[in-house]
Specification:
The chain is mainly beta. The chain is built from 1 helix and 16 strands. The chain has a 6-stranded antiparallel β-sheet, with no helix packed on it. It is elongated and about 65 Å long. The chain starts with a helix and ends in a 6-residue tail after the last strand.
Length: 225
């Protein structure tokens, strides 16, 4: 009888561990911004990097003891306090370097994200890596996220959606910057300016008043005087 009870108890403990791991797997890195200029400010009014998590499961998950890191060799570089993400909830963590871990307040990691690309990993309290973003260059005020949320492929978003579903227009890749025949500056006389791009299928749009170009702006045809 004692042996049977001991085996039964161990089975329950093992089953509980498996259930815990299954629940943790429902937390995904869903959207990331690595160079925040004007998109969203934190409680101090600063425009910091941010990481959005999403709970894809049907149950709430407590992140107490989970790790976030930008270093494969140090998965617990920053550790979550007692924080719960509800089913279907989006949760924002600032990657600001401010290192704030008070439950119920805005959370800040002790590291920021390199916009030129570095790994980003999420590890549960048992040391199991449950999600990661491989090093990816992310331009200023552009986010990189999944579509559909939590399960889809990674895309660039010109219209980021921190704390909300990724439903804006998604772009699979980014073009290299165009090449100008002349560096910027002030010049006393006019000159011919050429702009080139490595992609022969790309269109170059420009403005002459310093505003942001759109697909209805002037289109490059060879020379600007």
């Amino acid at each position: 009888m004692w042996s049977y009870f001991r085996f039964f108890t161990m089975s329950l403990m093992f089953s509980g561990f498996l259930i815990g791991v299954t629940y943790s797997q429902s937390i995904k890195i869903n959207e990331v911004m690595a160079s925040n200029g004007v998109t969203l400010s934190d409680e101090d009014g600063d425009y910091e990097d941010w990481i959005e998590l999403f709970n894809t499961g049907n149950l709430p998950v407590t992140l107490d003891g989970y790790g976030l890191s930008d270093d494969y060799d140090n998965p617990f570089r920053w550790i979550f306090p007692d924080t719960t993400i509800q089913s279907g909830e989006f949760f924002l963590v600032w990657a600001s370097g401010k290192n704030r871990t008070i439950p119920g307040q805005e959370l800040h990691t002790n590291f920021s994200i390199d916009s030129d690309g570095e790994e980003l990993i999420l590890t549960d309290a048992n040391g199991v890596r449950i999600d990661e973003l491989v090093p990816t260059r992310i331009p200023r005020d552009i986010s990189y996220g999944r579509q559909p949320d939590g399960s889809g492929e990674w895309f660039y978003f010109k219209e980021p959606t921190p704390g909300e579903p990724n439903i804006t227009q998604a772009f699979k890749d980014q073009l290299p910057p165009p090449i100008f025949s002349q560096n910027g500056g002030f010049f006393p006389t006019s000159f011919d300016l050429s702009i080139e791009t490595a992609d022969t299928n790309a269109f170059i749009y420009y403005t002459l008043d310093g505003s942001e170009p759109t697909d209805t702006s002037l289109q490059y045809e060879g020379k600007i005087h």
